[in-house]
Amino acid sequence: xxxxxxxxxxxxxxxxxxxxxxxxxxxxxxxxxxxxxxxxxxxxxxxxxxxxxxxxxxxxxxxxxxxxxxxxxxxxxxxxxxxxxxxxxxxxxxxxxxxxxxxxxxxxxxxxxxxxxxxxxxxxxxxxxxxxxxxxxxxxxxxxxxxxxxxxxxxxxxxxxxxxxxxxxxxxxxxxxxxxxxxxxxxxxxxxxxxxxxxxxxxxxxxxxxxxxxxxxxxxxxxxxxxxxxxxxxxxxxxxxxxxxxxxxxxxxxxxxxxxxxxxxxxxxxxxxxxxxxxxxxxxxxxxxxxxxxxxxxxxxxxxxxxxxxxxxxxxxxxxxxxxxxxxxxxxxxxxxxxxxxxxxxxxxxxxxxxxxxxxxxxxxxxxxxxxxxxxxxxxxxxxxxxxxxxxxxxxxxxxxxxxxxxxxxxxxxxxxxxxxxxxx
Length: 425
Hints:
Layout: H1 2-14, H2 33-41, H3 62-72, H4 81-109, E1 110-111, E2 122-123, H5 125-130, H6 140-155, H7 157-164, H8 168-189, H9 193-206, H10 213-233, H11 238-274, H12 277-292, H13 296-301, E3 310-311, E4 314-315, H14 318-324, H15 327-349, H16 354-370, H17 377-387, H18 389-394, H19 398-424
């Protein structure tokens, strides 16, 4: 109830019932649902692009979005459809963070998993680090801490920038990450038909993020890190390997419909994308902006190139630039980062917990791809620049590909760190 009250207040303060929400590369299938369905179904050839071309975006990934918008148009005025969808993503992302952070805390506090060799349940890393007995039932404190993590996920600077200039692939990515991780944790605990179905449903709905393939790639590498660490720490046990086959089969199957045309483009025409005149002009500018905001202080606060972006009336984020100019606001931002780092350390210092180690490695992956002007990540970025122009092109604006993922991991580990601090106090 408290979550809905807080989020409802935020949405009510920002929702305008008499405006169209437009801008950037926004998608507007509500203007012609049948035409956009046809374009999604014929994603291999985009004939409305000039004389026609094989597109590099995941055009087929717009199909679930178009179908959802089509349902919305039956009950919502056309000019409000996009606003409702964007705010729905906002609401679902925060709600997912509430559930996944609570699930993670429960897993770390009291590990109810029985070892494959038939061993008894073991204490989780938080209990091992802090001492004391694990709670025998759901603790109210874990829900309050999870709520705090959820509110951080909804209100940090990274999220504000994402929703200030929204694009459906990014807002869906924001909504999907907590639920995808929640489904992953459920499958790692126990592989059942209902859990597989739930994970597949989330994967299919979140496949909208594939419109920007690099966003899905960022998630895919993160999932590879988490599952890889989990498998390694379980010494490639047969049960774990079967679970990994199920997880990755679900991921590939639910995204194959848009991955296939994108894969074809990558194999036959990716060089055309790199050598496009527009990209030749703008890519280095975007890379320079990413490097500019790749220093440690900006990565800690989740600032991006949007901080310096302008519109006709001045800076896009002018109110927030004025707000963050207050020293107290900056201190609060750094404090939350410190709590997140504490959460990572506590997760690693406890018992040998594969999920905690996998998420910590994923945290480092996202952080390193944002802090590209901070050693040692800067050296790795320069190496990639010199050897892979395709990767440089695909990830030229690092914030739009990794910023939401980093915000997500900050929120997860803020829950862990905040719980530990409260217990110690």
